[in-house]
Design goal:
two-stranded antiparallel ribbon, single chain, mainly alpha
Amino acid sequence: MNKWIRYFSWQEYALWLGSASVILIFFFLFDGENLLTLAASLIGVTSLIFNAKGHPAGQVLMIVFSLLYGVISYGFRYWGEMITYLGMTLPMAAAALISWLRHPYQGRKSQVAVNRIGGGEWIFSLLLTAAVTGIFYFILRFFDTPNLFFSTLSIATSFLAAYLTFRRSPYFALSYAANDGVLIILWLMAARAYAAYYSVVICFAAFLLNDLYGFFSWRLMEGQQA
């Protein structure tokens, strides 16, 4: 037990507690009923603090979050979000979990070995992201997805983030931070029709802060491992 308590720094505990507290406060202010939204938000923010440490448990929690978020997105007909998280983020999180477990840092299962990807792979990842985004654009347009531009942009940032997570690059956290910004806009639009979705906006605002910390943490890990 003491080992787990010491695993996180006091700053990380403060970040998690602060994020969870804000999520709870705004849930009861704007929603108070959709417990699925609350559960998804708390599981999501917990996954990010584990991801920031490079712990595979973060990917397990991301799989659970993807399931719950897919259901929430279905409720507002955000087909892009539903398809992205159930059809892409979830299986990519599973693939990332296997990758992280297969590449522990010096045999320590509690921390993944940070990977550096070269210029050629960056070009490949961007071209692949563009191709996937183009395909999904026509799928989303076919289903008459609300806020099509931002839904499509969300797919681009989500796919790139998922790919970089699988490849164990520190820049996965920055990609997820960009995705958080897009999702804040998307759910602000949804909240104009149903105020309870403001709690989802706050959820992704908390995610944004945690993902930025995750990038800082991974760069620090990268330097220590090198």
